[in-house]
Amino acid sequence: MSYEITLPAFTGPLDLLLRLIERAELDITAIALASVADQYLAHVRMLEQVEPGDLAEFVSVAARLVLIKSRALLPRSPVAPTAPVDEDAEQLAAQLELYRRFKQAAEVLRVWQESGRSTFVRVTPPLLPLAPSPATYRVADLLQALARRAQLQLPLAAEERIALTPRLTVAEVVGRIRSRLERVTWFDFSDLLSVQPTAEEVIVSFWAVLELLKRQVIVVEQTTLFGPILVGRGTAPIETTDADEREL
C-alpha cells in the first residue's frame, strides 16, 4: 500500500505499521487507530477516483490492527485458550509474503501490457508423440492376416425395410382449402387440422394459407389478438390448374 500515515509514534506505510506491531517491535496501545482511520478518509476524499482494491486492502489491514488492539486491551477469561503470538506472527508473515508476490506479479503484467506484449512464452515444452517404430512384417504375415480376416467375416443381416409415414404437402392442404371454399364462404383455420395436430401439420397448413393469400384466392381475418383465424373466398377464382399444382 503506497499510502502513508503520520502518527506521533510512527510515520510510514500502513502495512509496515502492521508488520512492526505483529513482530512486537511497536506497542499497539501507543497507536490511535481512530487517527489512522481519519487520515485515510481524508486521503480518500482528496482522490478523484477511488480504486476498490485499495479500499479492500486498507479494510483488511485496519481490521487486523483492530483485532490486535482488542486483544491487548480487553481482559481475557483465564480458562479461554490464548493463541500464541508466534503463530499469529507467522500467519501475518505468510500473508504479507503472498501479498508481496502478487504485487510483484501485477507490476510485471502491467509493464508487459504497456509495452504491447500480448504473447507469452510457453515454459513447459509440448509433449511430442513418439515416432512409430518401423514395421517388420513380411508379405507372408500380411497374407495370413488377410486369410484369418476372411474366415471371421459374418454373413450380412437380412434387409430391413423402413416404413416412412406419408408426408403432408402444401398442394394437398391447398386442395382441402379449395374444396371447403366451394361449399362454404368462411371456415376456421383449425378445421384444417386434426384433433392432435403435429408441428409439421400446422406449419404446412399455415404455409398453404399464406400461398393462397398471396395469390388472392382467399382472404384471412383475425378479429382479436390470438383469436381464431378465419379463411374466406378471395377475388381470384377458386379453381386450380395443373400449373398451380406443379408450383406448390
TrEMBL record:
Any single Pfam family the record assigns to this protein: SMC_ScpA
Keywords: Chromosome partition
Ranges in coiled-coil conformation: none
Gene3D superfamilies: 6.10.250.2410
InterPro entries: ScpA
PANTHER family per UniProt: SEGREGATION AND CONDENSATION PROTEIN A
Protein name according to UniProt: Segregation and condensation protein A
Organism: Chloroflexus aggregans (strain MD-66 / DSM 9485)
